[in-house]
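A student in our group prepared the protein record below, which I am reviewing. This is what I was given:
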Amino acid sequence: MNALILILLTCFSYSTPRSFFINYTKNCFEKDGECYRYISGEMHYFRIPPSQWEDRISKLKSAGFTTIQSYIPWNVHEPKENIYNFEGIADVFRYFETAQYYGLNVIARPGPFLATEWDFGGFPAWLLRDRPTLDVRRNETVFMNEVRKWYSKLLPKLVPYLYINGGPIIAIQVENEFGSNKPCDDAHFDYLTQLRDIYRKYLGSDVVLFTVDGDSHRLARCGNIPGLYSTVNFGVGGGTVEQKFAVQRKQEPRGPFVCSAFFSGWLDHWGHEFNKVDPWQLAKVWDELLAFNNRSASISMYMFHGGTNFAYMQGAKGQYQEGIPEYPEIWGKMTSYDYDAPLTESGDTTWKYMLLRNTTSAYSKVYNVPENSTKEDPRIIKFKPHLNLFQMIDNAKRLPPSLVVHSLYPLAMEQMGQNHGIVIYTCEVPSSVNLPFSLTIPLFGDRIYLYTRKEGFIGMTSRNRPPQKFEINSRSIIILSDDNGHSNTGHVRYPYYLYQKGIISNVTINGNMNLTGWQAILLSNAMYQEPFARNNDELDLLDDIETQNHKGFPNAKGFLPTLYVSATEKTVNDTFVDTQGWGKGILMANGYNLGRYWPLAGPQKRLYCPVDFCGQVASKAEQKSVYAVLEMEQAPRNLSMMLSSSPLVDGVYDGTQL
């Protein structure tokens, strides 16, 4: 990007009076003295490698879009309490600057609740550490104090980027689909009022603030208060465009028609069919939207490009089980956020893209389409076992004290300072207990694997299965806990403890004795301190992996979770790692966490690895890329994965794996 052009653009912007507001007399947005409607596409900087932001933005502009819309997740920018990050993939301001360089406007959505199939809906999981009175999305003191602190850091940084100050931001959304949050009572509206006032305090009275809710009168009514402009979202079905905008018009008798999220596809869960929206049907309704009310309606397509839920950041759907109201199921979202959007997960154009571009060309200028990225030629990468579960436990004494926690009773993952991922709990059963015995874990999040030194693998259960008792004939208990993501479901709210992960209750023997004396290894913290961060300690460990002496694993019944590594020739292009034949685990490339894989559940079989991650060199001496796999359920005999030139997000799925 030409820095001089940016400077000139900024200087011109500040020397020319700029305005953007709602003209209620003309029923339009007014931009610099003229009625204006935007054609926007949703793309999230935190789901796209920074080196590829310009590619995605240029493809959006080439399709005739005039505006980019993006969430700003709290948990990306404050991954640890009081530690803020606005660099690398979290450099939201460079993302906005890139949009402005391409002549695009920006709509920012800072929440604090986002949904968007993102972990905890954008809330940082460290909120769950030591705040038992926490009540998210309510005017509750503990929660609101944290919100105010976060906004005191973020919102002043947005001020220079407002359109009226020479930047690209024309409007800002407050909260997200709040009308779905129950109950719709006075306390409900008190929270929204507090947020509105915080936004005004930092951003001033001139910026356009709005809300968005589903296309029903109840949702629109419960999701809005005076001082925030009400908009709607919807997809291709469920009524005409006129009927859907009628919901907004009842809430806002005057002002522009706005659809803040027109769904190009839909979200996807592990163990469920991949969702698709027919391109022809989508283009038909898109054309109706662009033509609506004499071409005056403003629209944002959700998503224009989905990207990837890297690391542990995919969200989850939480819903209460029938007959067990106190114990919600958790369905994890896929690592891919392809969304069946016009651009694929890796940013490639599709038939849907070309069709929508052609439709939009009747309403807005389109440009030549940039070429898609080159993909890595297919090849096999072979792995070697490095550490199994028992060896990880035996090596715990080598870890720093912050990664090994001792407690009388088992603690939730967040209570121990880990926000996501895997925890290994161990405990010795006292000699006063006769063997065998039954063991019960009443509450946990979200999937547990039980082992003993004597018997190996005992069994597995999850929050999506009925409560289970395990019969044990050994005194050394090992429980591996893995989470499926914190719920991002906006319409279901839980008690504080049900948001937590790991073991969140006592572990009982024979139904009447609580086990005490626990050790917990914070395995994900040991491997990755923060989402998106490269872990150099692990790279040092893996640098000489080829020369390490691998002893035979202890004999044990069933599969033991194992860390496998592969040092292979450097990857020079984007690629997709095919995990078929493996079970469930985490895939890493050169110290970067690519995310979860689960081909047994499907439908996603291949993980996207951008050249930003796979193209790094981890083994400095031999100029090799290092892949690492933490597998929990099964590994193929050949211990290999394939680097592929194409994605596979819509494969076979199996809901019985959940």
The CA atoms of residues 542 and 619 lie 7 Å apart. Residues 141-158 form the longest helix (18 residues). The chain is about 20% helix and 25% strand.
